[in-house]
Amino acid sequence: MSTATTPVPAAVTAAPGRDRHRLLRWWPAAVLVLLVVAPYSALPVPGLLDGPVGSPGSLQLLATCLLFGALATGYDLLLGRTGLLSFGHALYFAAGSYATNMFLLEAGLPFPVAALLGLCSGTLLALVLGSVSLRVTGIGFSMVTLAFAQAGSILVSRDPGGFTGGEEGRAAPAELLPSWLVGIDHTANLYWIALAYLVLTLAVVRWAVRSPTGRVWEGIKENERRVEVLGLRPYGFKLTAFVLAGALAAAGGLVHLLLTGGSTPQTTTSDFTLSLLVMVVLGGSGTRWGPMVGGILYTWADHRLGDLAGSGAVSDLPAVLRVPLSQPLFLLGVLFVAVVHLLPGGLARLPSRLRRTREENR
Questions:
Q1: Alpha-carbon distance 299 to 35, whole Å?
Q2: Per-state percent for the chain, helix, strand, coil, to nearest 5
Q3: What is the DSSP letter of 9?
Q4: Whose CA is closest to 245, among 85, 66, 75?
Q5: What pLDDT shows up at residue 311?
Q6: How far apart are CA 307 and CA 264, in angstroms?
Q7: Is residue 71 a contact partner of residue 93, using CB atoms and an 8 Å limit?
């Protein structure tokens, strides 16, 4: 007597894989729900946060991480999507903050009006400077944006007319801000604003990249000359990306103004833009989630490694170890070099690399 095995239909064997893939598609919504309800949580996260998730200090750090995750995502419209290496992106972030602050302090305008004018100011500045910078390409473009950034930083530090506060910056007038945005008791509201800014940035970037203009950006990044041969003018498309990224940065400046309670000259420097560049490369340039992850991780590490550098555990070490470990920038640099060396393409490429390694070992 012989026995025969009934073959299992391929559709049946493939069903679990499809179900798993369908569930994985919903992970962003699940993460968003967790982030929305985070202020209501008293869960302690030792090592990651100093206090419970819903405490004001933890929410302030989380809001800052979300802010820079969004800012890095917007910056990647230039670097990862269009192939434009700008060293002046911080200028539009600072413009949104300083312009809003000046409209509040000098003109006494209501916050919604001042915020709208601040956003328009940053966008207009991106349009004007972008139209000039994009007249050159390659390293020339990078140097022009760097020159504009340096000029803006010097202008802010010189404090012309007393509008910027010089090296001390300028505090936002609490009496002119909505009451629900002022005070430690309203930290959760600021956190939700930062989260909304992140969601908005991700949505705008996703829409822009998948649009016909986004496909032209991809062509410009790969081969700009070929785009010209097709009868398209790259200049207009690059300027669109530049202005859109500048507008998103200006919106981030508004959020930063609320989170920090003022405008600071550090946000005008080219070092600020270099930090954005590191965030994008760390997370994975040109990917959907990479710049966001890189911005969040870099900002968290910047804050937490600063605490580590000043801790007693480091101060008790021998000088040969204490000196480098007491410098947060050294620790961040080592982390960045390690990720770039071990994970080419950034953290966003890690899942695909792990899947490929697992398949090769089967």
A1: 17
A2: 75, 0, 25
A3: P
A4: 75
A5: 61
A6: 22
A7: yes
Six-digit token string for 243:
């202005």
What DSSP designation does 106 have?
T
How far, in Å, CA of 144 to CA of 135, rounded?
10
Hey, what are 232's tokens? 């398209």
Amino acid at 186: H
Residue 61 near residue 190, CB atoms below 8 Å: no
* pLDDT for residue 7: 55
Q: What residues contact residue 180 under an 8 Å CB cut-off, 6+ apart?
A: 186, 189
Burial group, residue 108, by CB count within 10 angstroms (0-12, 13-18, 19+) = exposed
CA distance 151 to 350: 39
pLDDT digits (tens, 9 = 90+) for 139-156: 999 999 999 999 999 999
Question: In this structure, are residues 34 and 26 in contact, taking their beta carbons and an 8 Å threshold?
Answer: no
The answer on pLDDT for 65 being more than 80 is yes
H or E, element range at 326: none
Task: Indicate the SS3 state at residue 189.
Answer: helix
Q: Where are the alpha helices (DSSP H) in 45-138?
A: 56-79, 90-105, 111-133
Mean pLDDT confidence for 152-163: 87
